[in-house]
Amino acid sequence: MDHLQALDGYFKENRDAHIEQLKDFLKIPSISALSEHKKDMQLAAEWLLKSLQDAGIENLSIDKTDGHPVIYGDWLHAEGKPTILVYGHYDVQPVDPIELWESGPFDPEIRDNKLFARGASDDKGQVFMHVKAVEALIKETGSLPVNVKFLIEGEEEVGSPSLEKYIEENKEKLSADLIVISDTGMYGPGKPAVCYGLRGLCGVQIDVKGAKGDLHSGLYGGGVQNPLHALVEVLASFRDKDGTITVEGFYDNVQALSDEERAAYDALGFDEEALKNELEVPELFGEKGYTHLEQTWVRPTLELNGIFGGFSGEGIKTVLPAEAGAKITCRLVPNQDPEEIVEKLKAHIEKHKPVGVTVTVTEFDKGKPYITPFEHPAIQAAGRSYEKVYNVPTAYIRGGGSIPIVAAFDEILDLPVVLMGFGLASENFHAPNEHFHLENFDQGLRVIGDYYYEIAHFTRDELKK
Amino acid sequence: MDHLQALDGYFKENRDAHIEQLKDFLKIPSISALSEHKKDMQLAAEWLLKSLQDAGIENLSIDKTDGHPVIYGDWLHAEGKPTILVYGHYDVQPVDPIELWESGPFDPEIRDNKLFARGASDDKGQVFMHVKAVEALIKETGSLPVNVKFLIEGEEEVGSPSLEKYIEENKEKLSADLIVISDTGMYGPGKPAVCYGLRGLCGVQIDVKGAKGDLHSGLYGGGVQNPLHALVEVLASFRDKDGTITVEGFYDNVQALSDEERAAYDALGFDEEALKNELEVPELFGEKGYTHLEQTWVRPTLELNGIFGGFSGEGIKTVLPAEAGAKITCRLVPNQDPEEIVEKLKAHIEKHKPVGVTVTVTEFDKGKPYITPFEHPAIQAAGRSYEKVYNVPTAYIRGGGSIPIVAAFDEILDLPVVLMGFGLASENFHAPNEHFHLENFDQGLRVIGDYYYEIAHFTRDELKK
To answer: What are the GO MF terms of this UniProt record (chains A, B) (predicted)?
Structure first.
């Protein structure tokens, strides 16, 4: 029997039971940010452990960290075959403003084939799909075509403060051939996506100091440098009118987009007009010579996130402020190095330093960009699994944002990371009325199951990054 | 007998009495900003009225306004001679922080030949000098060499909200040939100054609006215009690296500095190095080709007074703010017109409007620049009176700031205004331990008295602006 058919049968037969189980998982208010839910965190971890155990996963443990516990488990009987590390999280976001929820955030309810509850999509629902996919394969075939390890944490929604240390300390235990994460979204309804790259981050704060105190613009204006003017001069020097960053060497190590990738993006038929209308801007704007998707996925940015200095109340105050400042962050793409970019920013600021003021630069936290090459077999295999189930071409996408834990996996374990999400942008992650489209629950189970077979076709060497 | 000798005799003879009288005036806490001192305002007005009456001033009245009363009085028996309108104020600033005063703000005390009290210098002391100068002349000679009108208001420290209306409604009664105001400072200790020009003011707020809400810099950064970048681009376009304003036509009507004025300023030997050290800036900065005094007295400015938008808290927030804005004011010099300059600013902003955002411009209140020509006989006469008494050259200066009531006098009465101050920058106007150097009280009485004779030498026609 074809394995997809076998999976189909299992999922159909057990669908009601699976949904009830998922509802039970969703009833536990495992809000990692709120200390009064500490007990619920433990309950959710135990519930998941039991679920993994029932699925046939072995060597299970709830591992203590400085924060909420990490769940580990594995199934390692596919000798010589690749090992997939599945990462996800069992914690959820707070629920405020509670009055905007149509049904209780922890009273899961299905309306219009959507399951409404906090965590339905982000990420309990998607973690649960991996558990059930493994369960189906083990129950139906007695084994898995690859080795699998589960690493499910309880602090993703608070920035994963304990996980990096946990990964460092359990490098051996977590060793694998690729990492699969289902915590992102599809390209659109009915349109599956594999995300194979994320941008990195670095940034600086610029503080400009003028006179020892605020000055009267009548007495001193025109004869003393104004820190706001000085700041604006520096800030304006970062970019030209075409949106190109003018920091020397900024684009030096930027990986060029391959023809294949460009074609893949073009095939998505991204609707820039629709985005313009949605954002209510007179027109879109970005680096000349690139499409909006290219601008946000494969090109680095330098953005001003805040400027401050002087008077911002109502009306007028004729002051030359003593100080002014700005916050700047860059989204970085492969193979830009955050340390190197910060050095270039500093050199640029030094070069454009205006007279009459002192300028101080402070660095922010840095995150490396991440990419698993587009043509990597683990990426292409994920695309094939989606296509078999959804019967449409898979979107190969990148994310413009940064998921710090992905960068940490990349850094510490040095493995290909496959972001295989089933959420939809409309599903209100982090907001009231979070929900999960159950057609993607149903289809996703089959995609995940199929993916294990797809990966089983490769040798471990073939999966090397 | 020479008139200066006569005055000398009178002032010496009555010095103790004058100081005691001034102390009585200073004991009245006539704080215009605080409603609990309304009664004190009336007391101070009555005290001053009595004092003017004793001096020989006639037609005295305490004129009601919407706020605190105005005192009027005159002496008009010098037929065919010019009329001087003396303006001043009997209200004072609040006294907070009270704990920093070494003696009570309303317990006048002399230490080291300085009279400490709120209002000692600003402006009760200086108003009192005019009263006593007139008194001396009338007592010693039986008359005044010119006609004199007194207009002393009680709302200068709260922005003179009622005075413009009062002047409009009493244009005839206040008609004169020149206005003398003693409410400013000398150039320095022992260095008298006549101020003959002030800068005007206009300004705009620029508001930049991007998307309908704040955007995530990961998801949208690089593909949507950032209102902060757009704002910075506009703001940077206002000025070049040499400090020259680049708004088209900005300098069109700027009156060139005459060789005489430039020489007069140069003769002051202004110490730019000392200012640099005092302000604690690495260097001074201003429009190329002009000295610091020229930059702040005779050149117009465009200053950023505040910029706001995005995140200004601690650390990092990767946001593209939906909105950003800036406040800008210009100090204007003769013959710039505030209305015209605002139109030029608007045209400049329109021309430099960045794509992808909408820009709104809001105007602030405007004030015209004021100047009585340097060579005007009323200005030069004031300089001569100072020189006779102080035996040093008078500094002919301008003020970089704007005194709205001076512009109103200029606008409504269209008279030369002579700013003849006796304060010192070190005398803590508006601050704790305000004081007045009594040597300038003693000398100033003689300067004022002499000035009446100086003005008497001119025909009314010769004093026309």
So the answer is: dipeptidase activity
Q: At A209, which CATH number?
A: 3.30.70.360
Q: Which residues of A touch B307 (CB under 8 A)?
A: 228, 231-232, 307-310, 312, 324
Q: Are residues B354 and B420 part of one domain?
A: no
B435-437 and B114-116 strand pairing: antiparallel
User: From the CA of B373, how many Å to the nearest CA of chain A?
Assistant: 20
DSSP labels, A297-308 = HTS---EEEEEE
How much is the ipTM here? 0.89
CB-based contact A229 B303, cutoff 8 Å: yes
- Of the residues A363, A378, A399, which one is the last residue of a structural domain? A363
In a shared domain, residues B105 and B250: no
Distance between A273 CA and the closest CA of chain B, angstroms: 12
Is pLDDT above 90 for A281?
A: yes
**pLDDT digits 0-9 by tens, A337-384:** 999 999 999 999 999 999 999 999 999 988 899 999 999 999 999 999
| Nearest chain A CA: its distance from B298 CA (Å) | 10
CB contact under 8 A, A303 and B320: yes
What pLDDT is stored for residue B3 in this prediction? Answer: 81
| Chain A residues lying within 8 Å of B211, measured CB to CB | 279-281
Q: Which of A224, A231, A299 is closest, CB to CB, to B279?
A: A224
Q: Which of residues 33-62 of A touch B (CB under 8 A)?
A: none
Which domain covers residue B383, as residue numbers?
3-198+369-463
Buried b / exposed e across B283-304, counting CB within 10 Å, b at 16+? ebbbbeebbbbbbbbbbbbbbb
**A402–B222 CB contact, under 8 Å:** no
Are residues A422 and A350 part of one domain?
Answer: no
B316 in contact with chain A, both atoms CB, cutoff 8 A: yes
Phi, psi of B420 (to 5 degrees): -125, 85
Going by C-beta distance under 8 Å and a sequence separation of 6 or more, which residues neighbour residue A49?
Answer: A60, A62, A71, A73
In chain B, what residues touch A212 (CB-CB under 8 Å)?
279-280
Chain A partners within 8 Å of B251 (Cβ): none
* CA dihedral of residues B17, B23, B26, B28 (deg, nearest 10): -90
Query: End-to-end CA distance of chain B, in Å?
Result: 33
The answer to whether residues A72 and A59 belong to one domain is yes
**Any domain includes B248:** yes
Read off φ and ψ for residue A407, nearest 5 degrees.
-60, -35
